[in-house]
Specification:
With 649 residues, the protein is of the alpha+beta class. It is 45% helix and 11% strand. The radius of gyration is 30 Å and the shape is globular.
């Protein structure tokens, strides 16, 4: 970052203009070289802002995705840059909006400071820890952001500097805080036609740049979509630069809103799809969620045993630090190492949990299920219902961890595109909404779902097996829709191997290496010469080599189901000819065979074809395999290339 202490300022009628060569240059990994106003640099060079260097953007995600090492610090700089880009684009296209240099500077400051209030591991702190440590406290990180902003300005004496650069205090301070967290104080939620103090109604569009409460489309999302996808190794289909370029302000019902060209509806849909994809593949990843749950549990056990010095030397706990910004400034992800390296007896339990994370002894994932409606009363008894205290396994309620995850497109169960306004090239001043009938037929029809993830704190095979079986019965009794694996990857692989070997014994007359063409180049089996059955065997096992079994579980279950049905057909077929009997197969099925039957029960209606004519069924089997094998072989490598880069539990 370049440094220039001498700044030439020209103040005209309260506005401030600065020579461009006195802006500071940052080389950002996402946006390249960005220039920031000297006042923003003054804010960056404070301890309150620098603490963001030690707060991971994705919380516990770094323990799952090795590339997710980015922090709130660089994200905040990126949002400030994009906020400036958007407001200046609107100013250049529409001079009639009367966007002043003061407006530009305030918008950039709001973008820079919007995440000042995040605690250790970002959303983990306010979304999980504070919710459990202080359940009666209605606290969000946006609340802490405006508190920390006030503290930053006062502690570093920035009021004179802000006035020097042309800001009007306290009006512009109110405007900045309103852009971060919405209308403040008595103005919030009172139903006034215009609840904001910082800017009048004719500049309502400025409140949609940093944190858009109406549509959810703002520069905060633009940056974290691009940044998170970059560090996670996930494709980002949304082009924020194009959105900024085509954005305009139009008046709707007396208020001015940011709109975009009607032809950009596809790009907007890509943005919402990127959002749900990030939640599904990263933010709500089952391993990420249990790691964050374990960190939360450790923080709760350490809460009263860690004292942080706040204002006037007062000592506060982790959960009390949110009421003292001096203490909160000292609270970052470093608390993880503080607990881990402590020799205090009071932190022994918390330390043990964090050691389990480091040694990868995580709570075991039992499965997940889906429910349509949930209430707190329903969830309050789940752990007791899952417990199996009477058996020799002895699973108690505290041995289970249950996480309820809701994923949506940003507007709960509604289509977020319905909240947007568009303009056409024929009339750039008129805003309109696009009827659903004119939207793509490929759009989703469901915009929200709630998943229930269940974990067992015990990791021994006996306990895990009993817990998995009990979880499946519990889900069925509750009427929940099963979504997850009853069996582990190794158990599925073992069963598939057993099924293949058993069928091998039955069809003992088959001939390998019968001279069929080699597999196509570019496939996983290129260079091998196999008959149809051998190809099928390799495909079955190759699919199970994909790292994230959760992504291929349905396909793996389908294969297993077909193999079991095929085994039954083969036994009946050969037995009817007196060639072999079921008892002649020496291979003993693995113990989990009964569990597999339950796991594939949802597939049986599809897989159970008419088997009245056994001869025709078996002869057709080879025809089907030969026809579909080429497709499977060609697509398998591409399928494997899309594997999740997350580490398996």
């Amino acid at each position: 970052m370049a440094r220039q202490e001498d700044v030439v300022i020209h103040c005209v009628k309260g506005s401030c203009q600065i020579q461009k060569d006195h802006y500071k240059v940052f080389n950002d990994s996402i946006h390249g070289h960005v220039e920031l106003h000297p006042l923003l640099v003054k804010i960056i060079d404070t301890s309150q802002f620098q603490r963001l260097r030690n707060i991971k953007q994705l919380g516990g995600g770094y323990f799952v995705f090795p590339g997710a090492s980015h922090n709130r610090f660089e994200h905040s700089i990126g949002v400030a840059y994009l906020a400036g880009e958007l407001v200046r684009n609107l100013k250049s296209k529409q001079p009639e909006l009367d966007i002043t240099p003061r407006d530009e500077l305030c918008v950039e400051i709001a973008g820079l400071c919007h995440d000042l209030g995040h605690g250790p591991f970002s959303h983990l702190f306010d979304g999980m820890f504070i919710r459990k440590a202080r359940p009666k406290k209605n606290w969000k990180h946006e609340t802490a952001s405006i508190q920390m902003f006030d503290y930053l300005v006062n502690a570093n004496g920035l009021q004179p500097v802000m006035k020097k650069y042309g800001l009007e205090l306290p009006k512009d301070l109110d405007f900045i805080k309103e852009m971060i967290a919405g209308a403040q104080g008595i103005n919030a939620g009172q139903g006034q036609e215009w609840p904001y103090k910082g800017r009048p109604k004719n500049k309502s569009f400025l409140y949609e740049i940093v944190a858009n409460k109406r549509t959810g489309i703002d520069v905060d999302k633009f940056d974290y979509f691009a940044r998170d996808c970059h560090h996670l190794g996930i494709q980002n289909n949304f082009d924020h630069r194009r959105f900024i370029m085509l954005a305009r302000v139009c008046e709707v019902a007396g208020k001015k809103h940011i709109c975009v060209r009607d032809k950009e509806i596809g790009n907007v849909c890509d943005m919402f799809y990127t959002r749900i994809s990030l939640h599904r593949r990263a933010y709500q990843h089952r391993v990420n969620k249990i790691i964050e749950s374990m960190i939360t549990e450790a923080l709760l056990k350490a809460d009263k045993h860690i004292q942080i010095e706040g204002i006037e030397g007062k000592k506060v706990t982790l959960s009390e630090a949110i009421d003292d910004m001096e203490a909160y400034t000292k609270l970052t992800d470093c608390v993880f190492e503080q607990i881990l390296t402590s020799s205090s007896k009071g932190l022994k339990e918390a330390k043990g949990i964090l050691q389990r994370i480091q040694s990868r002894q995580l709570y075991t994932f039992l499965g997940q299920t889906k429910a349509m409606t949930l209430t707190l009363e329903m969830m309050s008894t789940w752990k007791e219902e899952l417990a199996i205290p009477q058996t020799d396994v002895g699973l108690q309620p505290d041995d289970f961890e249950i996480l309820v995850i809701t994923m949506d497109y940003g507007k709960k169960d509604k289509n977020p595109v319905n909240e947007m306004y568009f303009y056409s090239k024929n009339d750039v001043t008129k805003a309109k909404q696009i009827p659903e009938g004119q939207m793509s037929e490929l759009r989703p029809t469901c915009f929200s779902e709630t998943l229930i993830m269940v974990y067992c704190k015990k990791t021994d095979n006996k306990s895990v097996k009993a817990a998995k079986e009990h979880f499946v019965k519990w889900s069925e009794n509750k009427g929940f829709q099963p979504l997850s694996a009853l069996l582990s990857k190794s158990e599925i692989t073992e069963l598939v191997n057993w099924s293949l070997n058993a069928i091998d014994r039955i069809f003992s007359t088959r001939s390998l290496g019968s001279g069929e063409p080699v597999c196509p180049d570019g496939t996983f089996a290129a260079g091998y010469t196999m008959d149809s059955w051998e190809k099928w065997r390799v495909v079955c096992l190759a699919i199970l080599s994909v790292e994230d079994i959760e992504d291929v579980y349905i396909f793996g279950t389908m294969i297993t189901g077909y193999l079991l049905i095929g085994l039954g057909i083969a036994l009946v077929y050969r037995k009817s000819r007196g060639s072999v009997s079921a008892v002649q197969i020496s291979t003993k099925p693995p113990d989990m065979i009964e569990g597999v039957g339950r796991a594939v029960s949802t597939q049986t209606a599809i897989m159970n074809s008419n088997m009245e004519n056994m001869d025709r069924a078996i002869s057709a089997q080879n025809v089907v395999i030969d026809r579909k094998m080429g497709i499977i072989l060609e697509k398998l490598s591409a399928f494997g290339g899309q594997r999740d880069r997350s580490e398996d539990q």
